Amino acid sequence: MKTGIVLANLGTPDSYKTGDVRRYLRQFLMDGRVIDIPWFPRFLLVNGIIAPFRAPKSAAVYKKVWLPEGSPLKVYGLSLAEKVQKMLGSDYMVRLGMRYQNPSMESVMEEFRKAGIQNIQIIPLFPQYASATSGSVVEEAGRIFSKWQCIPEFRITGPFYTESFFLQPIADRLKNAWESGSYDQVLFSYHGLPERQIRKGDAAGCCLKENCCGSIRKDNFLCYRAQCFETSRRLAQLAGLSSEHFTTAFQSRLGRDPWIKPYTEDQIKAWPAKGIKKVLALSPSFVADCLETTEEIGDEYHEVFMDAGGEKWDLLPCLNDEDGWAEGLAGWIREFTA
User: Fold this and answer.
1) Domains within the chain, CATH numbers bracketed
2) Whole-angstrom Cα distance, residue 247 to residue 282?
3) What angle do CA 212, 277, 241 make, to 5 degrees?
4) 255 secondary structure, DSSP code
5) Tens digit of each residue's pLDDT (9 = 90 or more) over 303-320
């Protein structure tokens, strides 16, 4: 009997047209795990301010990163699913399922239901756990299955930031780039989160304190910030980087509330004055290139750094649909479905 595999990612607009971007923003930002405030003020904020005014600007940015085949997140996701399908063979049915927009998780689950698949494995393609990403995928899976009369056996995998199939391909490319590029510093830039979201998940009361993310322990193992710092340490070790040659920071902050620190933009503005003028940047919180990597890190931060006196800014691409990444992912799937 076949096993259904859902490679779940965040989502993307169907096109870079303003209407499609607005539709995506409304669905994405109305998720209570993304903007974690009560429903009514969230509704007013998203539909009265963010979606109407941000959509045209976001559409223009999406147009800049759009590939001939479509959104890079979707293009690479579909290609990855196809490669993993070929590697796993006919005992599996592998599909890309987006939390928001298309192809939706619900449409993929329905395809599995009609095919009579009784064992479904959901893999959130987020290396580190966050309520707004992996948590939202778990909640959506529960919502979908709650409407089914017959609920199949299913499993949702956890974060994979410690797994070699994820770390090694990045570390190999990082090492090659570092050794050939004459850089002063490697920047690991992760998507940020409001500090309040970290505190909400902090049952032990240990997060956001001095040295709280210096290691992974039983009291912080699901802390997104701690997982990001651990990812950086592991990648640096595999790539042969000393501690003074890499920095972990957080990007994409919005609004006035404090987000997890240090902020990427503040770090890179200060670097040239300290003699750090050649930087290699990457974002190990994403497995596929998207707006936050290609545009924000690749273009916006490049401009900020150069304006501050920097000399060289290079972006290391995400894993995307790289063969080694697909092969490692397929091997990991075989292990936990054996």
Assistant:
1) 3-159 (3.40.50.1400), 164-315 (3.40.50.1400)
2) 11
3) 50
4) S
5) 999 999 999 999 999 999
Please state the pTM of the whole predicted model.
Answer: 0.95
- 201: phi then psi, degrees, rounded to nearest 5: -95, 5
- In sequence order, the 6+-apart residues with CB closer than 8 A to the CB of 152 are 112, 113, 117, 118, 119, 120, 145
d(CA 135, CA 143): 12
User: pLDDT value at position 93?
Assistant: 98
Question: What count of other Cβ atoms lies within 10 Å of the Cβ of residue 119?
Answer: 16
CB 96 within 8 A of CB 9: yes
Structural contact between residues 128 and 158, judged by C-beta atoms closer than 8 angstroms: no
Q: Beta-strand (E) ranges in 135-234?
A: 153-156, 185-191
Cα–Cα distance for residue pair 167/165, rounded to 1 Å = 6
Q: Which of 74, 137, 95 is nearest to 2 (CA)?
A: 95
- How many Cα atoms sit within 13 Å of 229 on the Cβ side? 19
**Residue ranges with strand state E in the chain:** 3-11, 92-100, 119-124, 153-156, 185-191, 246-251, 278-282, 312-315
CA-to-CA distance for 323 and 296, rounded, in angstroms? 26
- CA 257 from centre of chain: 22
Angstrom distance (rounded) from CA 313 to CA 310: 8
